[in-house]
Amino acid sequence: ATCGHGCKYGECMGPNKCKCFPGFTGKTCNQDLNECGLKPRPCEHRCMNTHGSYKCYCLNGYMLMPDGTCASSMTCAMANCQYGCEEVKGQVQCLCPSGGLQLGPNGRTCIDIDECSTGKAVCSHNRRCINTFGSFYCKCQLGYELKYTSGRYSCVDVNECVTNTHRCNLHAECLNSQGSFQCKCKQGYRGSGFDCA
């Protein structure tokens, strides 16, 4: 079985046929599956989609049970939590549905942790970190695109001179560089390369 286009979050099962790991979809298994949009819904009350998975949480006044259901709780109702709560040794604690969220100063609402600025997120070579509410993902740096080459996905330089996405002047030549490009006015012309006279 060979998959010329690769299977990012899955395995190759036949000629260009991918079997995606749970939580992923698409021809090359490169798209996150939004489990919260599935029928029947995976969560009793509320659902938060995460990369490759999902998290359930409960309405205020309900407690998240180990099986993912929500049970009515007087103590949770009094705690007034944004995303439901849990009881630990008789103590009521508000919950956040993702590791990328933390309890705010009031102990009831959840605030986002910016993994990109705190350095918690590590993106591989030529990738930049994009923060999302409750998580983050890595995206190719500007001037690079995701390609499947020699058995793996990597961010490769976009040759703006070939793809014609440069803005060089008609009287300038385009010179590709890693992640960028330069414009140089042709012989007999002067200027920035974007303007040549």
From TrEMBL:
The protein's predominant localisation is secreted
User: Where is the protein found, in the record's own terms?
Assistant: Secreted, Extracellular space, Extracellular matrix
Q: Which InterPro entries match?
A: EGF (IPR000742), EGF-like_Ca-bd_dom (IPR001881), EGF-type_Asp/Asn_hydroxyl_site (IPR000152), EGF_Ca-bd_CS (IPR018097), Growth_fac_rcpt_cys_sf (IPR009030), Nephronectin_domain (IPR052235), NOTCH1_EGF-like (IPR049883)
Keyword annotations from UniProtKB, A to Z: Calcium, Cell adhesion, Developmental protein, Differentiation, Disulfide bond, EGF-like domain, Extracellular matrix, Repeat, Secreted, Signal
Q: Kindly state a single biological-process term from the GO annotations of this entry.
A: cell differentiation
Q: Name one Pfam family in it.
A: EGF_CA
| GO molecular function, a single term | calcium ion binding
Q: Does the keyword DNA damage apply?
A: no
| SUPFAM superfamilies per UniProt | EGF/Laminin, Growth factor receptor domain
Q: Of which family is this protein a member?
A: Belongs to the nephronectin family.
Q: What is this protein called?
A: EGFL6 protein
**Species this protein is from:** Chloropsis cyanopogon
Gene designation per UniProt:
Egfl6
